[in-house]
Every structure is written in structure tokens, then in C-alpha cells.
Amino acid sequence: MQQSQSKTNPTKNQKIIPFVPEGDFYFVRGVKAFQRRKFDAATKWLKIAIGKNPKDPVFKCQLSVVYTEIGAYHEANQLLTDVLMNAKDVYVDCYYLLANNYAHLGLMDDARKYANQYLKEDPEGDFVEEAKDLLELISFEESEEEENAEWDLEDEDELLIYQETAFYYVESRQWHKALPILEQLLESFPQHQQAKHEYAQALFFSGSKQQAMDIEEENLALNDHSLYSHANLALFYFLDDQEEAYEKHIRALLNVYPMHEQQKLMVACTLARTGHLDEAFRRFRSLKKGDMDSQLSYFRWYSYTLHITGNHEKAVALWGKGQAKHPILNMENAPWE
Hints:
This protein is an all-alpha fold. The chain folds into three domains: about 25-145, Serine Threonine Protein Phosphatase 5, Tetratricopeptide repeat (Alpha Horseshoe), CATH 1.25.40; about 150-255, Alpha Horseshoe (Serine Threonine Protein Phosphatase 5, Tetratricopeptide repeat), CATH 1.25.40.10; about 260-335, Serine Threonine Protein Phosphatase 5, Tetratricopeptide repeat (Alpha Horseshoe). It is built from 17 helices and no strands. It is globular. The relative contact order is 0.05.
């Protein structure tokens, strides 16, 4: 007689334990998304992580870094301020992150205050060099603004006319018209730094390449932190196939993140024009779109960057917007033509 075998369910009477992710699970996903530069996903996961553990300061600091990367500086500062006010331990790095954000917002007094606070609290910290560079950049930009503010009030109208006219001709690449205007401007205002850089550009693209390079090399000898000189020389040497000289100046741009929108645009355009397209794309994305409407170079070189990096539809849309705002662009070929 065959013995019957009972059939048993191995999961019977066993409790199923559901997987409930903790904050760390979402935090790790957020960090990975950030590293892949998927900022929307990073923001989503980090917000969930904070919801799971609202008292964890590390989660908030990481989200503040994402906000900084996408230009949401106020939101980043709210998180950092909350960490400094409520965390049991002092997260000293918050002082540097606040300084960096305030600098991007143009609030230089606050930027200086927090950079100095960071150096005071942690003189051997991870961001010491960055904080010192930031303080140096603030001092340099303030000195440049003082130089350009030396004109008497009665000269301001004349200066404004020169600036606007020269800016139009430089942006529209009408170099033969830009040169005499810039020469007149510099004759009346010989210390005007921006005009010197635009004059060098107009010379280079009018065929006086060596003279343009010499002017910027002299400027750089007087001020080795001049972003405009590094940008012009990087472009000049790139176009003139002087690779070693080009590499020196492009490295100076790759390692700096300016605070003013005009400087940020200048760096982004230079990177685009010299083949650093992925980095140029990141720099263009960080610009405040509302400040760019008057800048032909923004539409010209951001469209080009978008097209080359595989965002053709966005490139077409941006180019069309530029043509609507600046009819002179209708006379140029689109970047992909």
C-alpha cells in the first residue's frame, strides 16, 4: 500500500514582511541621479528622503547642492540656514555653500561674510581654497567696478551712447563699424576695461590678430585674474591653431564659475566656440533666461551647443526665439546649416 504524501505550501503560516524604504534608500538614489546630472530626479528623491527623515542635515545639504547647480540659490540658502539653526552639530561647510550662493545672487557683502566665517570655523576644511578664491574674486570684481565707475556724472550719457553702440556692433559681428566706435570710447575713457576687451575682439576679427593678442597679453600681465582676457586669448589662440597657448587659457576658464550673468555668458560662449560643448551646455543652463534676451551671442552659441549635443528641437526653438527678438539673426545661417 502506497503511503500518501501530504502537500504543503512552504510559505503557509509565514509572515510576508513588506520592504519599506528608509530615507537612506532615497538619498542614495538622489545622489546617483545628481551625479548623472539628472537634476529633476535628484530633487524628487532627495525631497522624499527629507520627508522620511526631516531632521537629517546631510539630506538637506545635498538637496541644497542640487538647487545651487540649477540656479535656485534662494531655495538652497533656505535649506542651509535651516541646517545651521536646527542641527545638533555645526555643519561648517554650510557657511561656504551659503557664501557661494550669495555670490551668485550678487550679494557680495553676505558672500564675503560667510566665506570669512567658514575660514574662521574650519581653517583646514575641504573648501578652504575655494573660499579664498571666492574672496579674491569678490575683491577683484569690486575693484573692476570701481575702475569703471570713475567717470564724472556729466560723462555718463556720452559713455552710455558709446557702450550701447559698440555693444550692438560687437554682438552683430560688424567689426569694421565697431572699431572706430571703440577707438573713440577708449580715447575718452582710457580706463574702461570692457571696451579694451571688445576692442581686442574687433581687431582680431578684422584681421589684426597679433595686435589683438598683444593687447590681451598686456592686460593679463597687469591683472592675471581677468576672465575677459583669458576668454579672448583662449578663443584667439584656438582659432590661430596655437594649441599650447590655448590650453593655458581655456584651463583658467574651466576652473572658474563667475558670479555675474554677463561673465557667465562670456565663459559659456567661449567654451562652446572652442569645442568644450558638454561643459558649455552646463554653463548655458545655469544662466538666468530673463537676462539673456538682449544677447545675440546667447541665442547664437546656445543654439549651436544644443544642436551639437543632441538637443536639436530645443536648438530650433531657441534660434527661432532669437530671430524674433533680433531680426539681424535672420541674415545668418542657423547653427546646423
